[in-house]
Amino acid sequence: TALSPPDVEPGPVVSGTFESAARGTEVGWTTIYPPGAEPGDPLPVCLFLHGRSGHHTDAAGPMHLDRFLAGAVTDATVAPFVIVGVDGGDAVNWHHRADGDDPPAMIRSELLPLLADRGLDVERPALWGVSLGGYGALYYATLPDAGVSAVVAASPALWKNPGEWQPPTFDDDADFAATNVWDRRDLLRGIPLRIDCGASDPFVDRVREFRDSLDPTPAGGIEEGGHDDRFWSRQTPAELAFVGQALVRP
Fold this sequence. Notes:
Blueprint: E1 13-20, E2 25-32, E3 44-49, H1 65-74, E4 82-86, H2 103-117, E5 121-130, H3 132-141, E6 150-154, H4 173-179, E7 193-198, H5 204-213, E8 219-223, H6 229-247
Parallel strand pairs: 3-4, 3-5, 5-6, 6-7, 7-8
Antiparallel strand pairs: 1-2, 2-4
Helix pairs in contact: 1-6
């Protein structure tokens, strides 16, 4: 059963596009503000990375993060922050591809400066990804000088060995090997992590293995559910709280 979002009035939701040199295409973005905030307020940022066939509007669309965020801030469960969805391509898997499509460079050199120009605090963003976006969030956090404050990976698409992964998420086995987060786990050390997965999710065995291999074990866990919006909605309040805690400045 899906968890219905709170019946509250969300804060402003602002969308736009930019021509991305890093991705070689027009990229859409959506910024979700909490109630009581408005564009120009210097709030911290959580980047939301969508899954396969996803879109920058997913955060305020099927995920209903505008209303979940509004409810959490209204109840003082979390301090105010902004959620930003952005287009990462269909099954690009949020890493630099052989055809030149480079979502990490887009985030680093184009999206974050755009958000900074709009007054947002992008010094140490959090990352929140679902499915391929969950993999992408873990991968992005391992890049040099990523400087992320936390990572939430909901049902991350974790393949461990060549031959497991589904085209076209990687160019070939060499691309898979070069970007495999299993071989980058040391680079996640020190970053607050939350990894959730449904017990009937097709990725659950690999997610459980990945969680168990990390020290300390990430927050979150394996709970009843599948690889769908119903499971993700039930995890959203706890994942929001995790992000909000990580984004609080000392």
